[in-house]
Amino acid sequence: MRPSLTLLLVLATRLPAAVIFEDGFETLDATRWTADARGGAAIAIADQGLHGKCLRITSEGQYAYLTVKLDAAKYRGSSLTMSGMVKLDNGRMGEQVYATPKFHFMQRVEGSNQAQHVADRWTGTFDWTPKRLSIDVDPRCTELVMDIGNQNGFGTFYVDDFKLEDTLGKGRPVSLLSVFNTGRSDGVAGDGAGSFLDTGPLDLFNLPDGPLETPDATFMVPKPGDNQGQVLLALRGAKCPQFPLEAGPVAVGQRLTKLALLHAAAWADVAARQPVYTLRVRYPDGQTAEMPMRAGVEIGNFDAPQPCENWQLGWQGSCGAGKPVGLGATVWVNPRPEVAVESVSFVSAGHGVALVAAVSYVPAR
Q1: What is the dihedral of CA 294, 336, 211, 133, to 10 degrees?
Q2: How many folded domains does the chain comprise?
C-alpha cells in the first residue's frame, strides 16, 4: 500500500509579490538612481509619459545607464523582477550583442571571478509595451545591480510605470510538456477530428501565451504552436473518453512551499461538489500527498467562470462562440517543505473533464 500524508491546505491565501519600489519618473530621484551618460548620450525626464512625465534615454553609440545598486545580502535566494511600460524609437544594435536599449541585472557570486548578466534587449520601433526581466539571486551573491540603459547602442526609449518586485512568492514554472495532450482551440464541434474538447468555437483560443499574472501565482502559458500544438492537459470524463485517466508523473525535483495550478473543468456539476481530479504529489521516500479538486470548491467550469471557494479567477476572456470563458488558480501548501518534491501526477475522478494549463511552484528558502 502506498504510504500517504495527511493533506494540509491553506487554499485561499494569496501570494502577492513584495513591491520593493515603484517609479513613475515624474522626477529623477537621485537618492535611488545613479545616472551615467557619456559622450552625446542623454538621460532625462520627458513629457511623453503615459500619465504625465516619463524617463527618456537617448544614445547614438554612446553609454547611458540609470543604475540602482541593491543590497545583495538582503535579496540572496530571492527572485527579483523589474517591469515597466516601454516605448522605443529606432532602436538599433551597436557592434556587440549587448549594445541595445535594455533592462539589465548583474550579480557577482562568491567564489566566481565572472559577473552574471541577464537582460531584456530591444530593437526597432514600438509604442508603449509592457516589458519585464527577472533574476534568481544566488544565495552566495556578493554584488547585485539593476540597470535601465543603452551601452553603445542607438535610439531613444522611454520608460513609465516602473516597478521592482521580490517575486519569489509568485512561483516558478513546472514544465507540463510531457503530459500535454490537446490544444486550446477546435474547428468543428463533434466531428472527432479537432482539438481541445471537440467543442468547436467553445474553446480557450484567446488564452494569452507567455507569463500570466494571477493574484496567486505567475504562470508560464505555452504558445499555441508549441509542443506540436499539444499545450493543454485534459483528463478523461464521460464526455471525453479519449483522454487518459491519469497523467504523469511530471518531474519536479525541488524543495518547495507551494504549488499553484492554473486549471478549470468542463461539464462539472459545481453544486454536487464532487472531485473532478486529484493532484498527487510524490516525495523521494515514496510518501505521497493528495489534493482533490472538487467542482465548485477548488475548480470551476471554464465556460462558466465564477470564483469558487478555493479557485480564484486568473484569466477571463471570450471564445469564438462569443461566450465568456476563463481559468482559475488553486494553491496547494506543501506539508514537507524541507523535502524535495519528486514529481506530481494528475488523476481523473470521472466527474466532468479536468483541464490543466500550467503549474508553478514557490521554492523553499
Answers
A1: 160
A2: 2
Strand pairing category for 63-70 and 116-121? unpaired
Largest CA distance in the chain: 73
Phi and psi, residue 72, nearest 5°: -60, -40
Based on the fold, state whether residues 140 and 226 are members of the same structural domain. no
Phi and psi at 272, nearest 5°, equal: -75, -25
CATH number at residue 131: 2.60.120.260
DSSP state of 232: B
Domain end marker among 166, 183, 199: 166
Q: How much is the pLDDT for 260?
A: 95
pLDDT beneath 70: ranges in the chain: 1-17, 168-169, 365
Return the number of other C-beta atoms located less than 10 Å from residue 113's C-beta. 6
pLDDT digits (tens, 9 = 90+) for 99-133: 999 999 999 999 888 999 999 999 999 999 999 99
User: Do 178 and 297 lie in a common domain?
Assistant: yes
- Closest to 60 in 3D by CA, of 159, 151, 158, 160: 151
What's the Cα-to-Cα distance from 63 to each of 121, 152, 154, 190, 281, rounded to whole Å?
Answer: 15, 5, 10, 60, 50
Is 7 within the bounds of a domain?
A: no
Q: Would you report the helix, strand and coil content of the chain in percent, each value rounded to 5?
A: 5, 55, 45
Cell of 268: 462539472
**181 in a structural domain:** yes
* Structural domain range at position 359: 170-363
The DSSP call for residue 116 is: E
Q: Which residues pair with 256 in a beta bridge?
A: 363
Q: Label residue 186 left, alpha or beta by phi (over 0 means left) and psi (-120 to 50 means alpha).
A: beta
Let me know whether 119 and 205 are in one domain: no
pLDDT tens-digit series, residues 146-155: 999 999 999 9
